[in-house]
Design a protein that fits this description.
- The structure is a single chain.
- The termini are far apart.
- The chain has helices at about 5-15, 20-25, 60-65, 65-75, 115-120, 135-140, 180-185, and strands at about 30-35, 50-55, 85-90, 105-110, 125-130, 145-155, 160-165, 200-205.
- Helix content is about 25%, strand content about 25%.
- Helix 5 links the parallel strand 4 (about 105-110) and strand 5 (about 125-130).
- The longest helix has 10 residues, at about 20-25.
- The chain has one domain (about 5-205): Rossmann fold (3-Layer(aba) Sandwich).
- Strands 3-2-1-4-5-8-6-7 form an 8-stranded mixed β-sheet.
- By secondary structure, the chain is an alpha/beta fold.
Amino acid sequence: MVRRVTWSQYRESIGDRTSLFTALTDAVPVESALYPGSYVDLSPSTAIATVTYIDTDARAAQFFADPKTVAAELVGRTRPGAGQSVRFLAADYTRPLDVPEASADLLVSLFAGPVWEHCHHYLRPGGWLLANSSHGDASLAALDPALSLVAVAHQRDGRFMLTSDRLSEFLVPRRPEQADAGRIRSSGRGIAYTRTAFAYLFQRL
């Protein structure tokens, strides 16, 4: 039997990312998002109208299969207009998805792996990628000329803030020879930077 898990329980282990998406949507116009490797993290739906969540974990599928539980988790936590459509795909994001090309305003990659390389075609031109470097996605994104760093996300006292100050100081490798896409892919890890952030916001050029 699959052990039931909720977003409330998950927040206790990873922290509440709601303010991350509040800050993001205050900074850039996002109406739709794609979140591969989401598990049961509902935080994007507190600030974004339409979110498609993607995961292969059976516990995530069980959670999203109960619309009443999902709706109850969002009660009192959404901004006006947010949480209107919550869709879940029990799928491997490295394979073709039932998602229209260039349909998402935002692609989310947090602790999920090489989301950008497999899902970039679902992001519209001018859209945004939110990624961290845990599994190398931000490191790969930093090497892609199709993307431009526009902001970084910091966490302080349990809350997130987004800033575009001194962006040139971020994503500077401590060891320049490690800034190699093949090496990052094979290791499955991000490289070390002289200055770090929780996550990085890129815009697709």
